[in-house]
Write a structure and sequence with these properties.
Blueprint (H helix, E strand, L loop, with lengths): L2 H33 L1 H6 L4 H8 L3 H24 L1 H18 L5 H20 L6
Helix pairs in contact: 3-4, 4-5
């Protein structure tokens, strides 16, 4: 076989692999956004959810709502840059949120973060145990 035939086969194999991966990603996206949207919605942090969980008063809830609104573009931009950027941006956001809370609500917020993280990991990995 000549080099042209091998190159053509490599290109075809690479294209097939990319199509396979794209199909898998599309299927996962469709599942999470349209077929089972409640799981995606359940994992979002909202000011109302935070307020209910921490029993914040109206002014604290308004402050948290404004802070979450100001943080959202940073998180969206970080998610475009990859997992490391998103992780760092989320850590900064959590710190800002915690510092904006009344001191008596901060431990409840930290507990909620752990609970939220555990739910997210369970949903992403299923209930399989790795031994």
């Amino acid at each position: 076989m000549d080099g042209t035939t091998n190159r053509g086969r490599r290109k075809a194999a690479a294209a097939a692999a990319l199509l396979f991966i794209a199909g898998g990603l599309t299927g996962a996206s469709v599942d999470r956004m349209w077929l089972n949207p409640s799981q995606h919605a359940d994992m979002q942090l909202t000011a109302g959810e935070l307020s209910d969980h921490l029993r914040l008063n109206a002014s604290d809830e308004a402050r948290m709502r404004a802070l979450l609104d100001s943080i959202e573009p940073d998180i969206a931009a970080a998610s475009e840059l990859g997992a490391d950027s998103l992780r760092a941006s989320a850590a900064r956001a959590h710190e800002r949120l915690e510092q904006a809370l009344p001191p008596e609500s901060r431990q409840g917020f930290r507990d909620w973060l752990v609970e939220h993280h555990n739910k997210l990991v369970k949903r992403l990995h299923g209930s399989h145990s790795h031994r």
